[in-house]
Amino acid sequence: WSWEGPGGFKSNIQNPMIEDIGVDQRGDYFLTVSKYGCTARTSIYVRVSEEIKFILYPNPNDGRFTIKGNTLKDQLVKMEVVDMAGRSIFRDEVQTFRKHFKKEVNTEGRLVNGSYILRLNVEGKERDVRFAVGQ
To answer: Which of 78, 84, 89, 127 could be 121's S-S partner, Cβ–Cβ 3.0 to 4.6 Å?
Structure first.
């Protein structure tokens, strides 16, 4: 197994992984396999998105949920649960690691049935994720 790719990537394992991948690693990766005197070569194009994405689950929930996402750089992500009137109900924060985070949130019975917004401060901008409790 011999892999070569963008940015000087090289690996001799069958299924290599790039943990902290960024846009500079997007492009064609070439694999050469040699066995018993035979050689085969193939390539695959790897697309790397620079989008910031979040997922909150389960939704609806009972006030306990997980928020998972990615950012463009490591940072402290501040989060706040607000009700539909804009009142702050809960605040917390999570540090990203390799531009990813996962946080289990327990609002400890502070939320009644209804709709809420989890407001995340990422890259200096507020991003909202809507969710429901008890519906």
So the answer is: 78
Q: 65 forms bridges with which residues in the sheet?
A: 105
- Provide the residue count of the chain: 135
User: Is residue 40 within 8 Å of 111, Cβ to Cβ?
Assistant: no
Collect all residues with Cβ–Cβ distance below 8 Å to 100 and sequence separation of at least 6. 68, 69, 70, 71
Per-residue pLDDT reduced to its tens digit, 74-97 = 899 999 999 999 999 999 999 998
Dist. CA 54–CA 68, nearest whole Å:
6
Please tell me what DSSP assigns to residue 18.
-
**How many angstroms separate the CA atoms of 61 and 43, rounded?**
43
Contacts of 122 (CB under 8 A, 6+ apart): 52, 69, 71, 75, 77
Cα 127 to Cα 57, 78, 100: the distances in Å are: 16, 11, 16
Tokens of 23: 């846009």
Q: How far apart are CA 116 and CA 118, in angstroms?
A: 7
